[in-house]
Every structure is written in structure tokens, then in C-alpha cells.
């Protein structure tokens, strides 16, 4: 549910028995990383207490235009503008009718009429009420207004009857809103392949040739792409990091050969590939089966080139947008531009070890994005912000 992270969700609660489920609903939104505020009709407080909801949401619950003694006015307009998403659950037949006909006799309805964000509603009532022509007309009108219905479910009702009219379960509501939000994200239905971290090439069972890459840049790219709706295959060399998003499938590898094999497994099905890994350029021709003892003053190793993963993807590229990285210490632009052409890239991200705060293990990076038509310079930023800059360039080219 990472698509709800950071979203402002306004939950409107009306006077139905299903209001008891809203405490679970608030907890799920908070768990998903959302900010939650609650508005109740006065009668809704008979079914669930404001104290419970304010404790769970960490915000005061509002049910009227003024606080006690009328000394403080609650601004329904500001609240409607604050919300990224408004959800009315449960939405009783009475409230649905008022929403559909523009009636405004309580704070919740005034806030609804002021909301500029997407509005979702989850009906809850007895089965005959749900099937009544007036309710059907309300539901039709609200959807014509652009509001989103989360349909009632079938089951045992408070009346003792069984049928359609139960409010959808909190998990179903959160999933429905998440899926709806995700469909409007710029990378919805796009698949990414991202490589991250170092590769290690064994010298013996104990030692290896590697580099200082932490994988932070690749993981930041994966999380940013997922946040914007993509499904991500993250192929990671040895790092201490773990992908947080459920939309990121992390595939752990060790050597360059293993990373190449993993990229070949996923490359044909993705729309975008970003090679952010710091791949070892050489490996021992033959790795020792046993630990090499420290007996001589010197040790000579015969090395051979490893597979060029980015070049292999460039040769295999068909519909994919392909992005490479270049970490340089001299002749930065010339070296990066040469890779751009040789490896059939759409653009390349250049960073230099000569820039303070950029490169391996840092939490920040300073990049230049080079394409065949132009180049863009970016200031030193946290890697999460750098990831946003890179993914934005991807989105512009996909569109």
C-alpha cells in the first residue's frame, strides 16, 4: 500500500452500525504511511467514540462547525483542501441522499461539498434499503459526479437478515483506494529492471575482488519507481539493504556472471532497464578451491574481463528504454559519452569521484545526465532526490 504513503486522507464517518469498523480502517491507513483526519456526524459518535479515532489518527476528531462554547470555528473549506483523498465510510442511505442532492446540514457534508480531491464512499445499510430505487438513484448520481463507490458486500446484517448491504471490510476499502490511486500514477503498468550494488569475484572461498558500492543509489531508484506505480525487478549484488516496497522484487546475486544471468531472465519483459550496479571489471581466471595461505611476500593473480552486462542489454534492446551509469575519475564527459554510443543507451548518468559527497557509500550524489541531444547538470542532493530526478527523465521519455 506504499502508494498511500504521505497522502492526506480525510475519513468521514456517518451514523451506521458499521462505524465500529472505522477504527480498524484508520489503523490500516496509518500503517500504509498516510496522514489521517476524521470527521463524524454527531450521531456517528453513538457507534464509535471520537477518543478512539483521535488516538489512532493522532489528530482531533471534528463533528461540528464550532468547538465547545462556540469559541473556535472549524474550517470545512481548509479541511477539504487539505485532503488528497476523502472517504465516507460507512455511507448511510441518509447521507448518500444528502450528498446526491447537495443538502448540507452538518460539518461532514459541508466538507464533502468543499473537497477538491477524489471522493470515495462505502455504502452500508440493510438489504432492502440498499435495493430501494431512491438509494440506487443516489448511487448513480454520485458516480456521475465523479465520486468512486466501494460496493457493499453480501453477508449477515445488523437486522438479522442476510444479503447485500454490509460495508466492505477495511482491508478491501484500503486495497480498492490503493489500486485506484495506482492506476493514475505515471508508471502504472510499467515494468523496470534495476541493478544495484557491487559484484564480488571469488579469489578463493574467503577472499574476493569487489568495490565499495553500497547499493543505495539503485535501491533509491527502485523505491521511487515503485512509488510511481511501477513493478520493479531489483537485481542486487551483496549489500546490507532490503527493498521496502511490495512492488519491488529483489533478486540477490553475488558475481557478475550471476547478475548477467538474472538480467537476461527479466530484460525482455520490462519497459525500462537502469544499470546502477558497480560491476567488477575483472575476475581471477581461476578461483582457488581452498583458502590461499599467506606464505609468500607477493601473490600474483591472472585476471580476465567479466561480462559487460550493460553492453549485453544494449545489444538485446528492442522496445526498452535503457539507462546506464558512469562513475569516472578523469575525462568524465568524454568517457561517459563514449559509453552512451557504444552501449546503445537512451541516456547515461555520470557521477565523479572528484565531487565531494558523490560516489560510493555516500547518502548524497551529484550527477550529470547525458543523452545524444543534450546534457543536464544537477546539484549535490540526497540519493532519494537524485532518484526522483532520474525517474522524471525516464517518465518524460516514456511519454
UniProtKB/TrEMBL annotation:
Cofactor: FMN; Mg(2+)
Region (Phosphopantothenoylcysteine decarboxylase): 1-191
Boundaries of every Flavoprotein domain copy: 7-178
Signal peptide: none
Residues binding CTP: 281, 291, 325, 339, 343
Listed GO biological process terms: coenzyme A biosynthetic process; pantothenate catabolic process
Pfam families noted in UniProt: DFP, Flavoprotein
Stretches assigned to the DNA/pantothenate metabolism flavoprotein C-terminal domain: 188-395
Cofactor binding notes: Binds 1 FMN per subunit.
Catalytically driven reaction(s): N-[(R)-4-phosphopantothenoyl]-L-cysteine + H(+) = (R)-4'-phosphopantetheine + CO2; (R)-4'-phosphopantothenate + L-cysteine + CTP = N-[(R)-4-phosphopantothenoyl]-L-cysteine + CMP + diphosphate + H(+)
Keyword Magnesium in record: yes
GO molecular function terms attached to this record: FMN binding; metal ion binding; phosphopantothenate--cysteine ligase activity; phosphopantothenoylcysteine decarboxylase activity
Pathway the protein takes part in: Cofactor biosynthesis; coenzyme A biosynthesis; CoA from (R)-pantothenate: step 2/5; Cofactor biosynthesis; coenzyme A biosynthesis; CoA from (R)-pantothenate: step 3/5
GO cellular component: phosphopantothenoylcysteine decarboxylase complex
Top-rank lineage group of the source organism: Bacteria
EC number: 4.1.1.36, 6.3.2.5
Keywords: Decarboxylase, Flavoprotein, FMN, Ligase, Lyase, Magnesium, Metal-binding, Multifunctional enzyme
Region (Phosphopantothenate--cysteine ligase): 192-399
Family, similarity comment: In the C-terminal section; belongs to the PPC synthetase family.
NCBIfam families named among the record's database cross-references: coaBC_dfp
Function: Catalyzes two sequential steps in the biosynthesis of coenzyme A. In the first step cysteine is conjugated to 4'-phosphopantothenate to form 4-phosphopantothenoylcysteine. In the second step the latter compound is decarboxylated to form 4'-phosphopantotheine. Catalyzes two steps in the biosynthesis of coenzyme A. In the first step cysteine is conjugated to 4'-phosphopantothenate to form 4-phosphopantothenoylcysteine, in the latter compound is decarboxylated to form 4'-phosphopantotheine.
Protein name in UniProt: Coenzyme A biosynthesis bifunctional protein CoaBC
Record organism: Haloflavibacter putidus
